[in-house]
Each structure stands twice: as structure tokens, then as C-alpha cells.
Amino acid sequence: MAGVATLGASALLLTACGAAPEAGSTSTAEASDYTGCIVSDSGGFDDQSFNQSSYEGLKKAETDLGIKVNQVESKTNNDFEPNLRAMVSAGCDLTVTVGFLLGDATKAQAEANPDSHFAIVDFGYETPIANVKPIIYDTAQAAFLAGYLAAGTTKTGTVATFGGIKLPTVTIFMDGYADGVKYYNEQKGKDVKLLGWNKEAQDGSFTGDFEKQDVGKQLTQNFLDQGADIVMPVAGPVGKGAGSALKEAKAAGKDVKLIWVDSDGYLTAPDYKDIMLSSVMKTMGDAVEAVVKDDKEGNFDNTPYVGTLANDGVQLAPFHDLDSQVPAELKSELEQIKKDIIDGKLKIESEASPKA
Amino acid sequence: MSEKHPPQHAGGEPAGRAQQPTPAAEETAALVSVDTAGGAMEPSAVPATAQSGQLPGGPDTLLRKIFTGSGMVSVLAVLLALIIGGLLIASTDKQVATTATYLFARPTDFLAAVWNAATRSYIALFQGSVFNPRGNGVAAQFAPFMETLTIATPLITAGLGVALAFRAGLFNIGAQGQIIVAGILAAWVGFALDLPMGLHLLLVLVAGIIGGAFWGGLVGVLKARTGAHEVILTIMFNYIALYFLRYLLNTPAFQRPGESNPISPILDPTAVYPQIFGSQYRLHLGFLLAIAATVLVWWLLNRSTVGFEFRAVGANPKAAQTAGINVSRSTILVMALAGGLAGMSGVAQVAGTEKVLTDGVAATYGFDAITVALLGRSTPWGTFAAGLLFGAFRAGAVQMQIQTGTPIDIVLVVQSLIVLFIAAPPLVRAIFGLNPRRRKPARPAKSREAATTGGAA
Questions:
Q1: Beta-carbon neighbour count of residue B278 at 10 Å?
Q2: B72 Cα to chain A: minimum distance (Å)
Q3: Under a CB-based contact definition with an 8 Å cutoff, are residues A131 and A118 in contact?
Q4: Is B141 or B12 the better-scoring residue by pLDDT?
Q5: At A332, is the secondary structure helix, strand, or coil?
Q6: Cβ–Cβ of A101/B263 closer than 8 Å?
């Protein structure tokens, strides 16, 4: 206790000797009256998934566009409505809500406050609402590339994936991944096996939540035991469990690789740099910032923003350290597939794909 | 065994039972007489007046101390919580961090920043939970208070369920699962059936209560028949309920037509609680039912034979059995009642505020209910008051977060501190040096005594 106190005191001493700013000096940064707000779902802004990405997008808008930002985290589903209501009464011009669970609450507030604008991430309404802009992703397109990449890189002929909870926004990754593997098999006459997801049956392996990393680790261990050498966890932070299982396997001499999701794992999960083959990215931050920018300039509309390979809303991340392990031929095939998907020659379909 | 025991403790007790000359001696004596059913039975390890599920022999005097503490101590407790909480808030404040860098050049800036950060947060907490003077008109000004009552509703009913089981000597951790099962049934009745106004809502309520009572009663049956411990049973039943709910939400029967997200259709308008003061507040009929439930539990515990049996079983199951009480029946019944009360929380959720079923339907109410019941000293009205306090904290947290940018986690830490200090005046006394001279550790003669007589100071 005393030690901590001393430490704290000396830290305070070290930092407390600065000069006081001149009284009356004001910030010169251009300030805008525009307020962008965000309400998280119960994952919070540190979920290493869509809440975090969306929040970072709004924070980026704060620095780039000089807007004011107001944020509120929901701890439970009960908080959605009061949080949203409070945001509207706090004078938010645009309120970003994250996830399908906020769909009803956002709709209710949007209809009650027709003059306020809203954007909802990862959820689209059957009947559009005039002042709500959905931000959704055709993730299967990028996941397809990841599946093809995994099938083309595996040494054991078996790859795997698993999800956190069986939600459309999760299974869309797994559908695309499965199709990518299948496409590779068709093109090359190979028989690369996929563990953890069956697209036809729409069933596979899930950890049950987005929190328990040890379950992800166990699941990955099982996949390894069944001969898989590349795993794509679609489970937010639980992916770290997969990462640590793969790292252990690598330390034991196995040649294993990890495919991250949502963000470029090489940058956001640097612990696993040396096994990070690639990532299936959803650039939510950019989309949120773009929507804020449009709204600030008075160009709000309620047509859904659909992230695709064509608009870089979804991407396959660079291979970084493992670049040398991906054959040049495979790289050019991936380029070609990407082009075909963008041109519409190759259609990636998933039950969970945005219907737009 | 008679229910009519003398208010003062009967004579003819062992000599060691002499009353302590403390301010609360009279109350203590009354408690002793309850514990021993007016001297008709041996004092039990867990006194009837403190059947809050503590392990036999464990210290049970803490809760009593809460409410026997003087007004001065309560004031100091709140003050202390506010000061420590304020410092915590200040430590996360940007302005404080900035001014701390030139603390020695101009210390007044730093102190002013600390003061501002703390007071702003507490004002926001108050404005978010009780009264917001900046609202347009009286209706908007009292909106926060209505919100407090709304959030308190499920806390009160679930808390009553936990408290009731405590009184029968059962530590019911299962409110969470009971809320979930109740929510499943109530929501299904709400969106799948098509019934006229009134009847529909009634059926939703009944379905929810039956669901909760079934889930709680099942634990009671297992405990009564096999002796399996209720703590383990209820914890595991929580998991079963949660994963069963998740499974159901992945079946088309519980999903919206044409969607595959795990969220149920919205309940029919005929199936939801009417809002008491119109649509501008979320406060719904469930709150009135929560008041009714509190009255019912009070009557049950204090005026009915069944309630007396519950307390007797809680005090000493063996003695109760000897006295002719059917302990198995009481265990099953009290767990079913506790489940039914928690079930009302489930109904308040799906028919009151959420109006849909998701896997977060129980939020954290099942676990908060345990704190609420403990803070409320396992009495019906104490639980009611504790539920309101927690409701106010939850409601105020939103404003605290938005107005001051205090991170929600810090808000929860501060609130937990406040509860901690309110619940533990001895701690506060120790901090302010108000503790009376330390009493000698348990004298031999006291070992036969019910623990209630130990410390009323």
C-alpha cells in the first residue's frame, strides 16, 4: 500500500511540475455545432468488434471533421431505450446504434423524432425508415476470398472455422468461407475439408458467446487434433483463444495459421502476427465516418450503405509476415476472383446476405 | 407450536441469555423470542430473524448492524461513499488530468477541476433518477423518477423472490433462470396467441408466473426429495434456462417471419402492460403489481401460517419437523413462490419494457435481486426500498454517462461503493474511529445463544 502510494506520489510529482497555461487562452481548433452520438449494444466499445470499429469511426470524425461526440454504453438490453432517448434529448444530430438488438429501439426513437437522424450498424429494416440509414455488409464476398486462400494454403488438406453465437452477421462469414473452399475444390479438383460449418445444414461449431476465450481455445484444439491447420474464428475477442491454441501448436512444431475477422488482425491482435495469414475486414469505421460526413453536409439519405468488395466496405487484409507463404499463382487467382465478384461474374450467396 | 409468542422474550431461559444493555436491546429480545419461538424451542444455528442464507455459524450480525446504526453513521456512510466515488470520477476526468500537470504552478485549478468533476456527476445522477429541473414542464421534470420506478419494478419482484427464499433458509441464486423461463412463456403467449384485450394480458401474466414457479419449484422438489443443495441447483438451472432460450431463439417458432436474427416478434398490443401515466413514461402496470406483491409477501410472512412455517423451517428444519411442519412441502412451496415472484419480473420485462424476447431478457436482474434482497434485510418493504434505490442508480447512470462522459464502468464502481458503505456501517465506524471498545470474543456461555443476541451495537 505504502509502495503504491509512494509510486503514485512520485508519478504525480513528476507530472505536476508543468507550467500553467495562460488564463483566458482559448482553443483555436474550429469547433462545429454538429453532434454525432453513438449507443453501443451490451458488448461495449471495447468489444474488438463492431461496437469498437463504429466508435473509432465516430472518434475519427471528431478529429477530422471537428464535430462533437457523445457516447453511451449499454450494459444490458434494458439500457437501449433510455440510452437512445437520452441521446435524442441531448441534441444529437445523428445517432449511430450498433447491432440488430437495437433495431426495435432505434425504430421507435426514429419514428418519435422524425427530425433526428440515425444510422444502425449491421442491421437493415424490411421497410425502410425515412430517417434511419442502415450500414450493412456483404461479408460473404471477402470471406469467400479467405476460404479460397485457406484452401490454397493448407498443408494438411483440412481447414476450420467457428462462430461465437449463431447470428446472421456471424454465419455470413462462415458461408462465404465454406463457398470459397468449395470453389477451390471445384477449380482444382482437390478435396480440402472444412470443419466447423456446414452451409447446407446451416449448422456448425459455436462457442456460445463472445467472451469465453478458453472455449475458443478448446474448440481450436479439437480442430487441430482433427487435422486442420488453418482456423478462422468469427467470435470477436474469443478469436484470441483460437490464436493462443494455434500459437502453442506452432511452438510444438506444427505449421498452423490464423485468419482474423472484422479488422486487420495483424494490427489489432499483434500477439499473433507470426501466424496471421490474413483477415476478413469490415471497414465499419470508414463507413460510419462517411455517413457522419454526409449528414453534416446535409446529404443524409436512408438508402442502406452496403459494404462490398467493390466499395472496399469488405476486404481481404494483406498477408503481412506470411506473404512469402502464399504462392504468387494463388495471389493472382485471388485477384481474379475479386474482380469476378465485383463484376458480378461470380455470385456469392448466403442466407444472411443483405437483401438489397 | 403456537404463532402467538410473547413480544418480549420469555423467562426461564438459560442465564447466558441476559439482555445486553444496548440501545437495541428491546429489539434484540424480540428477535430472540422469534428465534426460539418464544422459548418453545432451542435456538438454532441460523436465527429465524436472519435467515438470509448465511452458512450456519457464520456472522449474521452484519445485516442487523446496518439498521441499528445511528443516523450519524448513515450520514457518514453516504458522505464517505460520495467522497471516494468523487475522487474516482475525478481521476478519470480529462480536465483534472490536464490541470494535474501544472499542479504546483496553480493548484487551485486542479482542486476546482476535481470539485467540478465530482459534483457534476452527482448532479447528473440525481437529475437522471429523481428530478430534472431543466425539463420542459412538470411532466418532463419528473420523467427521471418515473424511469427509476420502471427500472425498479423487476428488481423489486425478483428481490422479493430471493428474500422469501432467504427467510426459509434457502439461498436462491436462481432468479435469473426463473426470469428467463417466465419470459419465454410470457413472450410466447404474447406474440403467438391472438386473444382479446384484457384476457391476453392476464394470460401473459399467468404464463409468466407459472413459468417462474415451475422453474423455482423444480429446484424445491429436487432439494426436498434428494437433498441436493439449492445453490448448485439454482446456478445450474440458470444455465439450462439461458441456453434453452438461446436454442429457442434459433428456431423459426421464436423468430420474426423472414428474419434469422435471434429476436422474437414484438408482443401484441393486447399482451403488454398498459402505461400508467400515458405514453410519455415507460412506467407500466407491472409497478403496481410489484407493490401488490410486496404487500402479499409481507402478509404471507407475517400474518399467515404458511409464512410462519417458512420461517420456522428456515430457523431450524429439524425442530420444525419435530414440531409437525412438513419441511419438504415448505421447501417446494417457498421455491415455487420465489420462482413465481421472479416470474413477475420476467413478465415486467417482456410485457412492460422490452416487448420482445432476446437472450438478454433477464439482463442482470436475477443477480442484482440478490443484492437487493440482502440490502433490504430480506424483509418485504426493505426489499422494496432497496429495489427503488437500485432503480435510481440504474436510471441515473445514463445521465451520468451522457452529461459528464464518466465511463459506465466507473459509474457502476461508484454505485457499488455507495451500496457497500450503506450496507456496512461498522466499516464506516472503523474509518471514523467511532467503534465502541472492542468486546471480548465470544464467551463460552454465549455459544448456546442465538447469534442474534451477539451484537446489536
A1: 9
A2: 29
A3: yes
A4: B141
A5: helix
A6: yes
ipTM exceeding the 0.85 mark: no
Better-predicted residue by pLDDT, B263 or B10: B263
Q: Higher confidence at residue A44 or residue B271?
A: B271
Is it the case that residue B29 has pLDDT exceeding 60? no
Q: How many Å apart are CA A225 and CA B46, to the nearest integer?
A: 52
Please list the alpha-helical segments (H only) found in chain A: 2-15, 50-65, 80-89, 103-112, 140-153, 168-188, 213-225, 239-251, 265-268, 284-296, 328-343
> Taking phi first (over 0 means left), then psi (-120 to 50 degrees means alpha), and beta for anything else, what does residue A73 get?
beta
Q: How far is B103 from chain A (nearest CA, A)?
A: 5
Integer Cα distance of B298 and B304 in angstroms: 9
pLDDT at A49: 83
Tell me which chain A residue has its CA closest to the CA of residue B279: A112
**What is the tens place of the pLDDT at every residue in B253-295?**
999 987 888 999 999 999 999 999 888 888 999 999 999 999 9
Residues from chain A contacting residue B249 (CB–CB below 8 Å): none
Q: What number of residues does chain A have?
A: 356
Cβ neighbours of A18 in B, within 8 Å:
101-102, 105
Helix (H) or strand (E) holding B426: helix B425-432
Segment (H or E) for A161: strand A158-163
Give, in order, the Cα–Cα distances in Å from B457 to each of A231, B30, B283, B379.
62, 16, 40, 20
> DSSP readout, B321-388?
HHTT--HHHHHHHHHHHHHHHHHHHHHIIIIII--S--TTTTTTHHHHHHHHHHHTTT-HHHHHHHHH
Walk across the sheet containing A35-39 and list its strands.
A68-72, A35-39, A94-98, A117-121, A132-137, A305-307
Q: What is the DSSP letter of A311?
A: T
Instruction: Write out the three cell numbers for B170.
Output: 434457502
| Pairwise CB contact (< 8 Å): B402 & A208 | no
A351 neighbourhood in chain B, CB within 8 Å: 260
CA–CA distance, A98 with B50 (Å, rounded to integer): 46
Within a 13 Å sphere around the CA of A225, how many CA atoms are in the beta-carbon half? Answer: 6
Do B330 and B300 form a contact (C-beta atoms < 8 A)? Answer: no
Residue type, B457: A
Across B129-169, where does the E strand assignment appear?
none
Q: Distance, in angstroms, between A181 CA and closest chain B CA? A: 24
Q: What separation, in Å, do the N-terminal and C-terminal C-alpha atoms of chain A show? A: 60
- Residue, of B421 and B57, whose pLDDT is higher: B421
User: B249 exposed, middle or buried (CB, 10 Å; 0-12, 13-18, 19+)?
Assistant: buried
CB contact under 8 A, B398 and A79: yes
C-alpha distance from A87 to closest chain B C-alpha (Å): 8
List, in sequence order, every residue forming a beta bridge with A136; answer none if it has no partner: A306
* Contacts A–B by Cβ distance under 8 A: 91
Rounded CA-CA distance A239/A171 in Å is 15
Spatial separation of the C-alpha atoms in residues B176 and B417, rounded to whole Å: 24
> Which chain B residue has the Cα nearest residue A74?
B408
Write out the three cell numbers for B83. Answer: 467522497
Q: How far is residue B29's CA from residue B377's CA, in Å, rounded to a whole number?
A: 18
Domain boundaries, chain B: 155-391
Q: Rounded to the nearest 10 degrees, how much is the dihedral formed by the CA atoms of B217, B222, B225, B230?
A: -90
